[in-house]
Write a structure and sequence with these properties.
Two copies of one chain form a homodimer. Helices cover 41% and strands 21% of the residues of chain A. Chain A has helices spanning 38-44, 83-98, 101-117, 130-140, 159-174, 193-206, 218-228, 232-239, 255-264, 272-277, 285-290, 310-325, 333-347, 381-388, 415-430; strands spanning 2-5, 8-9, 23-28, 31-37, 49-52, 56-60, 62-67, 120-126, 143-150, 179-185, 209-214, 245-249, 267-270, 295-297, 365-369, 394-399, 402-406, 409-410. An eight-stranded parallel β-sheet of chain A has the order 7-8-9-10-11-12-13-14. In chain A, strands 2-6-15-16-17-18 form a six-stranded mixed β-sheet, covered by helices on one side. In chain A, helix 3 packs across helix 15, helix 12 (310-325) crosses helix 13 and helix 13 (333-347) packs across helix 14. The termini of chain A are far apart.
């Protein structure tokens, strides 16, 4: 039994939140046994090993609800371009030329290092060679939902690859406590109706969730309406009935879409930085909220965001929601923290396991150092965490009770090796870039 | 003579930008003598003292074009509130109760420490007791434009205080090379026409610039239209003719306002985080750009932003401009860096002195460490600086050739004293807060 205490604990058990003082987290065997007053904890567990994190707040490890981890290797290859040119002239050609098991392994490890150092303990991924991603995530001790990508990248990956690997990936996940799988069809505009339908069938057959880019851009919606006569949400609903659904972006969902998604219990991964950088539009979180749709916060991949930084993303999500809804009281600090933790876990179907500090859940939590002068003075802990804190204030991270970050340093991941591999990819990919 | 070199130098001499390699900054007596190729520099200045900053990019020190520095002491006192309640129920009552010379000194010093550590070398301030601000800025060696606030805060400060101090503040500035002064009427809705007119007269008489909150909210514009029949920009133009003008926010400027401001040569301090947090609306940078209006980037005060972080603000300005203009190519990385440096200096009327790395200007520059794994791989230096970097990557800061930050630590400012004073204010102000 271990007791971890700190001046403040934010258990995030509801959107309204709350801050506990003089409390601690009791954990054993990688799970939270209780969150309870310190005095009571010492009486109940006199033999426990105790650690106090001075100046820190303890909160659930953050959940990155949508990313393409290995795309860290493409950080900055395509700045300030329209989405079309971004995808068709840069991202996909480079992926066609470089995609390999080694590329995916090195990019994913870099992403996990960056995310862990920034307090992100769980991520929903969508990228090629999912078996490699599983291996790297397991090796790093990160929690991941691995999305098996259904998409054709000529010469590098095909829908058939996805369908062939799905059963193996799922069965690898059942043996790894931190890992889960989803089928991840890219989007309605990049797949045939047959492949979308087949994705739905296979998801049902294998009992997998579906993770798809959904209503990300106006063009996607307009194209779907003109080609199929219905919105992307309706099309997905028809072609993939009955499977648990998580949509990434959800920028251009109308009220009918939301009604349908709410009935299905689908969740949305809100990706504010990526949507803003690619000028995809503003996701209307107030509409999702009004329909009772669960939403989390995602960074998207590094090629459209450049930071796998859930702290920056939380702050941006709150600021953007207030301005889009024209209501400064909307998405308050506690509500935002909820979206970045338990909300994300709900979207991934993992809210029984992670996302809040509650007895029985996995011990996935972080300690954020509030002694930085950028956090002084300190009147409002949740407000400070969302609006003032940077990820550089993350002191410690535990995943399933294992210490992954201590004093802002990775405990058991070799950063120098990761850095050297990134440098070598920089050389190879750099040669493919114009001028 | 000193030669400071690094793998990359971004001199920011135009909005299109550019990156120099194998170059250095030659400086002497606090001024930039030249930015030139390393080999040539060593030949021309064989006796020079040389320093090479491995892994770093050198760029102009960032300019925070609008803030209320001392409001760091109110960081987090009023989260998630509508502007009206924010200002009338929290900010102004607390200021009425606490405002003193000691409060301003302690808050300003905390702000300067935070800004210097984050690479901000110059700030346009607007706060009470400007003589105290001058003293603190001079003591810290920061560059500041001190805005003498024209506003009545019952029991704490009055318009008369401002008018009485203006001449003294201006003359103190003429003796301090890093300091300049402006008259800072709060806004058209918070001052009488007489006080606005008097501000203009005094600015002309003392040869001071005017720094005013301008078209920040829809209510401000609607109120001005209904009370005075003209927009805030037109009203200010009429009541304060012929003085150099810098407007903060400029969210609700229409085309006529912009035409008028362009003719006057007025500049705008764009404050994206504050505008989003208070749901004030979206500033249309593309419109300012089309009218040829200079704009800089400001954090606003800590009570409506929580971070005096020009790196976060640059990233947000770029992301927001793309999404508001629906053009992902707008506000590219070089253009954004220009706004945060030379653009800000133009707004403050200081572009002859700071904001770019050019022979003859003050040696105000920073070194940003790009070896962080969050900056790997490294294909695009400007893109990385705007979209990926955090202020924690600031390695060094020079103001007028004096080293203010080295290896991420303040060189000659006592952080422990600042922290202790913030803590003591936290105690006093905390008692005034509800609940």
């Amino acid at each position: 039994m271990q007791l971890i205490s700190a001046p403040w604990i934010l258990p995030v058990t509801s959107p309204q939140g709350g801050v506990l003082t003089e409390h601690c987290i009791a954990m054993q065997g990688g799970r939270i046994v209780d969150v309870l007053p310190l005095g009571q904890a010492h009486r109940q567990h006199p033999e426990a090993e105790c650690e106090h994190l001075e100046r820190c707040a303890l909160l659930p490890a953050l959940v990155n609800a949508h990313t393409h981890a290995a795309m860290t290797l493409l950080r900055g290859v395509a700045e300030d371009l329209p989405l079309d040119a971004w995808l068709n002239e840069r991202i996909w050609p480079i992926e066609s030329a470089c995609l390999s098991r080694e590329y995916v392994a090195d990019g994913t490890r870099l992403a996990i290092a960056e995310m862990l150092l920034g307090g992100t303990g769980c991520f929903a991924d969508m990228y090629f060679h999912p078996d490699v991603i599983l291996e790297v995530a397991a090796d790093c001790g990160a929690r991941a939902q691995v999305g098996i990508p259904v998409l054709d990248i000529p010469g590098a990956w095909s829908c058939s690859d996805a369908f062939e690997q799905a059963e193996e990936v799922r069965s690898l996940c059942t043996r790894a406590p931190l890992l889960s799988a989803a089928l991840a069809p890219h989007a309605v505009y990049s797949l045939s109706l047959d492949d979308l339908r087949r994705t739905g069938e296979q998801a049902r057959a294998l009992d997998l969730r579906v993770h798809i880019h959904l209503a990300e851009t106006r063009q996607e919606v307009d194209g779907c309406l003109s080609e199929h006569g219905v919105s992307p949400a309706v099309l997905v609903d028809r072609l993939m009935p009955e499977v648990p659904l998580q949509g990434a972006h959800g920028v251009h969902l109308d009220d009918d879409d939301c009604t349908l998604l709410a009935v299905r219990g689908a969740g949305i991964a809100h990706c504010p930085a990526s949507n803003m950088k690619l000028a995809s539009g503003f996701c209307n979180l107030a509409r999702l909220e009004a329909h009772g749709i669960a939403f989390g916060i995602g960074t998207d991949g590094c090629a459209s965001n450049n930071r796998l930084d859930s702290f920056a993303e939380m702050r941006l999500a709150a600021l953007l929601a207030k301005s889009v809804s024209e209501d400064p009281a909307f998405m308050d600090a506690h509500r935002t923290l909820h979206a970045a933790t338990l909300g994300g876990a709900q979207v991934l179907g993992l809210d029984g396991e992670t996302g809040s500090l509650e007895a029985g859940k996995s011990a996935d939590f972080i300690a954020v150092d509030l002694s930085d002068i950028a956090s002084a003075p300190l009147y409002d802990i949740a407000g400070q965490l969302i609006y003032a804190c940077g990820r550089n204030q993350v002191d410690s991270v535990w995943i399933a009770g294992a210490r992954k970050v201590r004093s802002g340093e990775l405990v058991d991941i070799d950063l120098e090796d990761i850095r050297a591999r990134a440098q070598s990819w920089q050389q190879r990919i750099g040669e493919l870039l114009p001028g």
